[in-house]
Structure formats: structure tokens, C-alpha cells
Design brief:
single chain, 42 residues, 2 helices, rod-shaped, 69% helix, mainly alpha
Length: 42
């Protein structure tokens, strides 16, 4: 049971960390799919 809780915590840390890192790196779908002629709300 302890191993399962550690795995759940690792999944949460990886998910939150990757969201923060990819958001700062400019890999969001909004930035990747939008061209220069597209106006996006900030």
C-alpha cells in the first residue's frame, strides 16, 4: 500500500512539474497552433 501512495505522489509531482516546465518553454497548444494572423485572448 505504501508503494501505491508513493506512485500516486510521483504521478502528481510529474504532472504538475511538466505543466509548469512546458508552459514556460512555450509548448502550449495555443502557442504551437496559432499563426501570426490569429488573435488570441490573453
Amino acid at each position: 500500500m505504501k508503494t501505491m501512495y508513493i506512485a500516486f505522489a510521483a504521478i502528481a509531482v510529474i504532472a504538475v512539474g511538466s505543466n509548469l516546465i512546458l508552459g514556460q518553454a512555450g509548448f502550449s497548444s495555443q502557442e504551437r497552433a496559432a499563426g501570426p494572423a490569429v488573435r488570441l485572448d490573453n
